[in-house]
Each structure stands twice: as structure tokens, then as C-alpha cells.
Amino acid sequence: LVGGSHFCVTKRDGKRVLLIRLANRRCNLILHPEIRVLFLTPHATQEGESYIGQNELQLETVSSAMTGVLTVSHVIDEKSPLGKYVKDDTFDREAFCDESNALSVTVLGRDTVYHDDLMCKHTYLCAKDAIFDQHFSWMTRRDENGKVVLDFHRLDDTEAAASVAAPPTANPNVPPPSLHFNDIDVHVFCGGLKLGDRLRPNCVFSENAYAACEAKGLRVKRHFIDLAAKPQWFLDLVSDYGAKAETPCVLLPGGEFVTDTAKVLARLAPYDGVGMAVEPADVSPGMLMSWFGYQASVPVTVRDLQNAEKWAESRLKLDKFVDKLRPIDAYLDGRDYLSDSAKIGWSDLRYIFFVGFVDMFSRVCDPEGAAYVQSQCPRVKAWVERCSKDPVVLKARCGLNFDPRLPANCAAMQKMVGKYFKHQADLLPSFVDEVLAPYDAFASGSAPLLAFEDVDVHLFAGGLRLGDKLVESCIFSDNVYAACIQAGWKLRRHWIDLEDKPQWFLDLVEKNEAKAETPCALIKKADGSAEFVIDTTKLLERLAPSKGEGFPVADADVMPGLMMPWFGFQASLPVLVRDVRDAAKASAKEEKLTAFVERLKLLDAYLQDHDYLSGGSAPGWSDWRFIFLAGITVMMTRNFDADGGTKIEEQCPKVIAWINRLTRDPIFLRTREGVAYDPRAPQNALSMRHLVHKYFKHQKDLVPAFVDEVLAPFDAVAATAKQKAAAPATKGNAIAQSGLQKKELATFCL
Predict the structure, then answer these.
(1) What are phi and psi of 658, to 5 degrees?
(2) CA triplet 443, 444, 447: central angle to 5 degrees?
(3) Average pLDDT of the chain?
(4) 538 C-beta neighbours (distance < 10 Å), count
(5) Would you give the end-to-end CA distance of the chain in angstroms?
């Protein structure tokens, strides 16, 4: 006896219900099953006692016998313990999915084989295992002999409830503003798939229609439609024209709306009689269905592979698919394209997107079958490779060729298996999950998008929370970022809150056996995988090594060379009046100030004859190595010790001029988000307060009064945001008042 990995909250005949699926894998008869479902939620009494409340959910009639599978249901009405989560026919998912809520399911029945009691128990965490507005799919299918069997691989399969209302939108009769025809001949609606932060092409027939219109010279505006969650404006649009919500479809001037690939092509880009003739039935159902039949028969398990009958059937279906490709292969004898010319044409576009995709899919899921196809149709293979480099094809596929390791292709293959070949999920190689892992994490909200489609480097830089956003606060992260920008790297910077590091970052550094420090980076390698590098020096060696030009800089010149003398001086600043009057302490402070100034003099000496440490007319590697440390330490010295600031200005005037010059540089401003070294800039005030609180706690009374004044409104915003973030944990949740911990709940459930 087993329970599904999740439960559903949906509607049946207008009534809201909770559904739980149970399965008996042996499919023998179980008599008089007693099924109990308890809703576990923390409760605090008026007397101050706290405990886990066990609220039984009354189930609708349960059969007196159970064999293979059983779905039990509980009606969520005013009598239900879950009724408190329903208001105005809306289910409060956020409150119900509190991490402290759980369901406990127990089953007890009489096993008719062993004549003994059979029992199982399963616990669901509401925050993790609840699925809304979906119901369980049928678990039956027909085997190769036509017999109806239970497929336990489908135990957790669900499908959207047909009655789920679409999200409210504006007036459905008003099309989106982008559907104009000022400089557009046709709007093409193409099937897409959400991956990361954008929609990607995911419909070979949409690609065909779009490419044919482009090749025809039409001014085309393409709109990707998320096939997994079609937007309401699109549903309203097709409804207005009495059409199905399918892609491709097109909108023409005068309100003409055309659906279906063949009809779209006939209306906008008809076959011109040049090249190989292609009838709609040649592609679908002809080639499409023969490939579907072959792919569905590909063996998954070793047992299937060793089954001579199944293997023969699969190869027979493969031959039927190859028979559909042979006419193309024959036509390509002596030709580069089906257009019968030196460039791609109508007939090529009719086939290439489908043939290219299924070739890629087969190479991944059935390499032997793909090799057989290529051996039988070698000219088709060469044609696919040729077409995949064509500008029209690349534009239709948003720059994608048929490389199976490209994220959009991985997502399309995964989607294809999940929708049409669920029993073949194990045929997808492990690299598919690896490629899609960062997109899955991004979609779940657990991490930023750490993919390498548009960037070469993901730099993790130290930041601090200023109001409701994170701002720059790590001079060494700034050093790496500026050097990489100048070196021409395509990089994306991710702020890491130094006072509250996110879990995804902690997991990342733990996975790479590193310390949770910034800067660090994920760097794209030649094979597409990621390399994790930490430490400023190592990052610069890997991404932007010194070319030996300008002021020579060794790592020791910066840290500890310049930083430690400043730390020693800053720590020596007197706080109490008696410290000021203490001659020994005053002398020690002057010695440490002198040591710091002497380090700055090395820079000042070089700058006597140069505008920049690079030795040239623009900032370079040496400038980025020093500016962020020099800038903030000089700023703090000026504001914490006026005499020390004056001494630096008098003895290192070239350094001061160099700092002022660099703060106007575009790379500097991009690195520090437009902020120079004005101490009253909120970002700088925050950095000064942070440094004092972290390294010089005894000097908190030296922090200028304007710092708290500048930061007061930002602190108020941060406090409000913190309270709001904590609100869901206390709303209707006695666990927050009782002190009961998540670990205690987990122990109770176990």
C-alpha cells in the first residue's frame, strides 16, 4: 500500500474537495479498508498550552473493498476543519500552505491473500505537497495486447481542472495594444514554452508559418503564446473568432483571423510550384504520426530491450518512419535544398523544423535508431545541418540550432516526453536535468537564474540592504566587476546580503566546498559546464589578469599592504576624552596614520607623472585594483578624523585628484551604481555604519550624526518589509506564539 506524493485541492461538480490517491501495487483484494485523514495544525489554548491539533476530515463514502487504486475525497465546506481557509469562494492557499500544517493518512484493511491486517501511513506537508486546481489523471492504459492495465508510473499524474477560471483581465473585446497594423502586415501567434525569464519557441508548425511569412518578405510581428498557461487575451481573441486556442494562427488587417498551418500558408505564403511538392498530409498526419508511433515503441527497460517481439515491433515502426523520409532523401540527390535552388525555400521550411526536432530527439532518446535513420537517409542528415545554419531558420528558432544541450531544446524535449511519452521519462539523459536545473530553481523562486545563455560569468558580490533593495558594499567585488567589464566579459552581478546570506547562495558554496564569502563566481567553461571560483586574486587571474602595464600591483600591495595599515589607524582613533589626552595613545595613532599615508604615497608618487595608475590616458587594471579600497578609506578618514583627512590631502594630493577623476569614469559609475564618495550618499552612509558595527564596535559613538539621519527613512522601510515578511508565519498560526518548532512538528508527523 502506498500513497501518492501529493494531494489535490480542486472542485468536483462545483464543490471544493481535497483528494488523496492510494494504491495497492499487488492489486489483490483488501476488504473493509478503514481510511482516516487527520489535519495536523498547531493550537494554543487560552491557558498558554500549545500542542498539535488533530482534526479528522470526514471522507465521502469509501468502498467496502479496494484492489489497485482508490482516490478518497473530503468536501471542504463550513463543517470542515478546512472551511476556515475558504472566504467568498476563494481558498486561502498561503495560510493553508503554512509550513506548520500537515495531513496524516492511515489505512487499515484485511488482506485476502495473507488473511491478516494490512496497514500503511503517509504524511503530507501542506507547504510542499499540495496541488491546487488539478485532479488526478486516469492510471489505466492498454498494453501491447490491447488489455487494460493499471500503470503505477501514473500514480502522481494530474491534469488541470476544466472549470478553473482564467485570471481576470481587462475588457476581453479589447485586443492588446501591440495588435496594430501601422507598420505590420501580419501578427503571427506562435507556441512557446516558459523557460527562465522568457518564452522560447516550442511549436515546429508555428516556426514553419513564421519562417514562410518572413521568407515571403512580409512585415511580421510574432507573439509567443505560453502553451502551458495561455494568456487570457489570447483566449479571448480566438474566442471572438470562434476558433480553437491553438498555434499557429494569424491576425490580418481588416480582422481576418486564420488558424492551422496549412491554411495560414495557403493564405500568406502559398507553394509557388518551385522545388519539391509538399501536401499538408505529407507532414501531418503522414510524417508526424509515423514518428510518434516509432518513438512510443522505443524500449525503456532492459527487459523490453531483450523482448524480441517488442524489439521487432519497434524497428518495424522505425522503418515506417524512415519510409516517410526516403522521398526527401531521394529528392536531395544532387541538390542542396528542397527548393531546387542554391538557397532555402518553401519546401525546406515546410519540413525542416519538424525533421530537425525529431532527429535531435531521437539522437538523445534512441541513438541506435537515429544512427539507422541517418544511414538510410544520409542526404537528409546533411540537409538538416545545412538548414539549421540558415538565417531564416535561426530567426524562426530565436537563434537556436538543433543542439540537444541548448536549454530551450532540453525544455522542449522534456515537455514532449512529459506530454506524449510519459513512460519514456527514463530515456532522457541526465544532462537534460543538469541543463534545466538553474531554470527550475528560478521558476520555483528559490534562486536567481544562474544559466549561461546570455552571460559568461555570474559574479556574486557583497551587498547590504538599503530600504527594500540591496546595494553595493564589497570593495573586492567591485574590483573584480570593473576589471571584468573592461576585459569585455558578459557578466551578471548578483548581490549577496552580507548580513543575511540567502539559502541558495549558502547551498552553492557548500556544494563547491567553499566559504560563504564574496566575491566568487560561476564561470562558463568551453564545454558549457560551470566552474566555481572564489577569492579576488584567483578571479582576476582567471578572468582579467594583469598585462603588466602601469603601476605594478601585487596582491600583498592591496591586502594586507593598504588595507591593514588603514585598519590599524581606524582602530586607534580615540573615542573617550581621556584617550585624546593620553599621550601614548595619541602617539600610537599618529604612527598608524603615518603608516597608512606612506602606503598612499606610493600611489601618489606614480601619479605625479600619470593621470591613472594604468600609465595611460584611461583607467586600467591597476586603477581598479586600488580605487575602491582607497576611495572608501579616504572618505572614512575624512569623516572620522578631520586631522587625518587633512594630512592625506596635504601629503597625497595626486591621490585625491585621481580619486575624483575616477569617480566620473563610466565603468566606475556602473560598478558603484552611479555613487561616488559623497559620505552623505545613502549607500556610503550604510557602508560606514556597517564597517563600524562589524570591525570597530567600540567606535560607534564616532559615527557622524548625519549617518543615522540619512539612513532613517531607509531603516523604516526595511523594518516594515521585515514585519510584512514575518506576518504570514503568525497569521492564524499558533505555532508562532507557542514557540513550537518545525523540527518538533516533523518529529510528531514521523
Answers:
(1) -65, -45
(2) 85
(3) 88
(4) 15
(5) 18
